[in-house]
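Hi P.,

Sorry for the delay on this. The queue was packed all week, but I finally got your sequence through. Input first:
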Amino acid sequence: MTNQAEPLLVIDIGGTTVKYGVWADDQLRQKDRFDTPASWPELLAKLTTVKDSFALPFAGVAVSLPGGVDTVVGKISGTSAVDYLNDFPIKATLRTAFGVPVTIQNDANCAALAESWRGNAKDVTDTLFLIVGTGVGGAVTRNGELITGQDHFAGEFGYMVMTPANETLSQLGSPVRMAQRYQRLRELPTAMTAEDVFDLANNGDTLAQQCVGDLLNWLSLGAYNLYVGLNPQRLLIGGGISARPGFVADLQRRIQHLMHQQRAALTADVRPCLFLNDANLIGAVRQFYLEMGE
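Then the structure:
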């Protein structure tokens, strides 16, 4: 058992960005980020440098990362947004590199842990989480407990096949993919961000409006299917896009419209994650404390 008064290094490894910070005095501090490196040796070297730069007596390291995470064995199975993290004892490797206890948990599960612990799901027991970023992840809580499934794959909603062409929700509902699609259709030489496309849509760009509308339609369809399949008390939306004004409200309207069309006697309670981009980091802290018996 560790002392909660001692600081933790908290890391969130994503397909595009690695975020990190220090959990101390019951708060997340000194947050920063860097681009996700192209290989595991580069990432490990960067994380080691980050840890050493703080010069703090860390009680441990709490890591959020993509994929089917086995928190006990300490490995990631299947595929993920960062393929080189898969199928090796990553937890033990990090423990050796850092010299302190290490915990790992799926990124969407971390968001669920954070929101159920201190966020917008702390007052309900049955919740779905849809985490929208480079891909689409998710999580499920039932009776207040995180559901992971026998293969640690529960909540990987991005793998849902949405079209006869086998396109998945991660392909169709990712803001990153939406921006890439806009850039390709416009034949632009420089990369676009989702924020760029949303701004263009607001300024009357018809192609941008179509791309944003398609994104929202696919996400609302996926969320509707989850609602009628699992009947949660609440659906929380995470990822950076959830902070955009009006995004979650628009998504809720579309989901409710689908319910009305299909005569599903349900009400969509859709909210953003309270912790927004910090949800994965705070949830990693919760996972650490749970594993340490605190």
